C-alpha cells in the first residue's frame, strides 16, 4: 500500500477545505498556538488523515483489485484532510467533554429550489429557475453562508443535518397554543424562516434575534411558526408601544406605527403602484 500523504500543516497552523467548495464557498480553519500543542495537533491530525487514506485505498481495492493505483483513489489529498478534520470534530462532540449533544447543522432551503435540484438529481429536466426570483430563494446555512445545491442535496440525503424547507409563509411546524414561549423546534423554525430581524432596515441576523409573536400572546396569538418572526431585543420591545407587524401571503413583512401608517420600503412601493 502506498504511504499516505503528509497533512498540510506548518507548525501549529492547520488548513483544510471541503470536497466540493468553490472559491467563494470554502471553509477554512486557521489557528495559532504553541509548538508543543501544535505538535500534538499534528500527530492527531496525521493519524486521522491516514485513516481516511486507508479507507479510500481499501474501497479502491474492493473495486479495482490488483489494478488499484493511487490515481484511482476516490478523494484527493485536500478532500481527505477536510474529512479527517470533520471526523476529529465529530469525535470530540461525541466525547462528552462539553456535555452530551449531537452536532447538527441547519441547512435552510426554499421548497422551489429543493424540488428543482431533486428533479435534476433524479434525471429530470426541470425548467430553469427564474432569475427574477433569486431574492426569494435560499440555499444556505443558518448563519447565512451560501451553499452549493449539490452539497445541500448530499446533506439532505445522508448528512448530519436538519433540513428546513420553507414555503412562501415560512410554515414548518405547528406547536399550538399550549406554550407561551417558542422553544425547541418551534423556536428554530421561526428563526430559520427569515434572514434578519423583521423590522424595516434592521440588519441583525435572525440567529441573534428573539422569537416574537406576530399576533401577541395576550391577544390570543398562537405559538406557531406562522405566527412568529425574529425580532432583535430593541425592536421586540417596540411592540409594547403599539407597533405591530404581519407577514403577507408572499412572505413579506409589514410594520405599522401606532397610528396605523406603514414603515419601510414596501409601504413606499405600494403607494407608487397605486399612483
Note the main attributes of this structure.
alpha+beta, 275 residues, 7 helices, three-stranded mixed β-sheet, 3 domains, single chain, disordered C terminus
Protein model, in words:
This protein has helices at 35-64, 77-93, 111-121, 149-158, 184-192, 233-237, 265-274; strands at 9-10, 13-14, 105-110, 139-141, 161-166, 210-213, 228-231, 244-247, 253-256, 262-263. It is an alpha+beta fold. It folds into 3 domains: 9-93, no CATH class; 105-166, no CATH class; 194-274, no CATH class. A hairpin with a 5-residue loop joins strand 9 and strand 10 (262-263). Helix 1 crosses helix 2.
Ordered list of secondary-structure elements with their pairings:
Layout: E1 9-10, E2 13-14, H1 35-64, H2 77-93, E3 105-110, H3 111-121, E4 139-141, H4 149-158, E5 161-166, H5 184-192, E6 210-213, E7 228-231, H6 233-237, E8 244-247, E9 253-256, E10 262-263, H7 265-274
Parallel strand pairs: 3-5
Antiparallel strand pairs: 1-2, 3-4, 6-7, 8-9, 9-10
Helix pairs in contact: 1-2
Q: Which runs of at least 5 residues are low in confidence (pLDDT < 50)?
A: 8-21, 169-179, 266-275
Distance between the termini: 76 Å
How many helices in DSSP terms? 7
- Order of helical and strand elements: EEHHEHEHEHEEHEEEH
Helix content: 25-40%
Q: How would a textbook summarize the main sheet?
A: 3 strands, mixed
Strand proportion: 5-15%
Based on DSSP secondary structure assignment, what is the total number of beta strands? 10
Sum up the overall morphology in one term: elongated
Q: Give the class from helix and strand content and strand pairing.
A: alpha+beta
Amino acid at each position: 500500500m502506498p504511504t499516505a500523504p503528509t497533512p498540510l500543516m506548518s507548525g501549529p497552523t492547520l488548513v483544510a477545505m471541503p470536497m466540493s467548495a468553490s472559491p467563494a464557498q470554502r471553509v477554512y480553519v486557521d489557528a495559532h498556538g504553541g509548538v508543543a500543542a501544535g505538535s500534538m495537533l499534528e500527530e492527531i491530525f496525521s493519524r486521522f488523515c491516514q485513516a481516511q487514506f486507508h479507507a479510500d485505498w481499501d474501497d479502491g481495492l474492493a473495486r479495482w483489485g490488483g489494478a488499484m493505483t493511487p490515481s484511482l483513489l476516490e478523494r484527493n489529498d485536500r478532500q481527505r484532510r477536510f474529512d479527517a478534520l470533520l471526523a476529529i470534530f465529530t469525535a470530540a462532540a461525541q466525547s462528552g467533554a462539553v456535555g452530551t449533544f449531537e452536532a447538527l447543522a441547519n441547512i435552510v432551503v426554499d421548497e422551489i429550489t429543493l424540488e428543482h435540484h431533486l428533479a435534476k438529481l433524479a434525471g429530470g429536466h426541470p425548467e430553469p429557475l427564474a432569475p427574477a426570483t433569486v431574492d426569494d430563494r435560499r440555499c444556505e446555512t443558518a448563519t447565512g453562508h451560501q451553499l452549493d445545491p449539490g452539497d445541500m442535496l448530499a446533506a439532505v440525503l445522508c448528512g448530519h443535518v436538519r433540513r428546513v424547507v420553507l414555503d412562501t409563509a415560512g410554515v414548518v411546524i405547528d406547536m399550538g397554543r399550549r406554550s407561551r414561549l417558542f422553544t425547541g423546534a418551534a423556536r428554530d423554525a421561526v428563526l430559520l424562516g427569515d434572514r434578519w430581524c423583521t423590522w424595516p432596515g434592521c440588519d441583525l441576523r435572525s440567529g441573534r434575534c428573539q422569537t416574537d409573536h406576530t399576533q401577541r400572546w395576550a391577544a390570543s396569538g398562537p405559538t406557531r411558526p406562522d405566527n412568529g418572526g425574529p425580532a432583535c431585543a430593541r425592536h421586540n420591545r417596540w411592540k409594547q408601544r403599539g407597533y405591530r407587524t404581519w407577514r403577507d401571503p408572499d412572505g413579506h413583512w409589514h410594520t405599522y406605527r401606532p397610528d396605523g401608517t406603514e414603515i419601510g420600503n414596501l409601504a413606499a412601493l405600494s403607494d407608487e403602484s397605486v399612483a
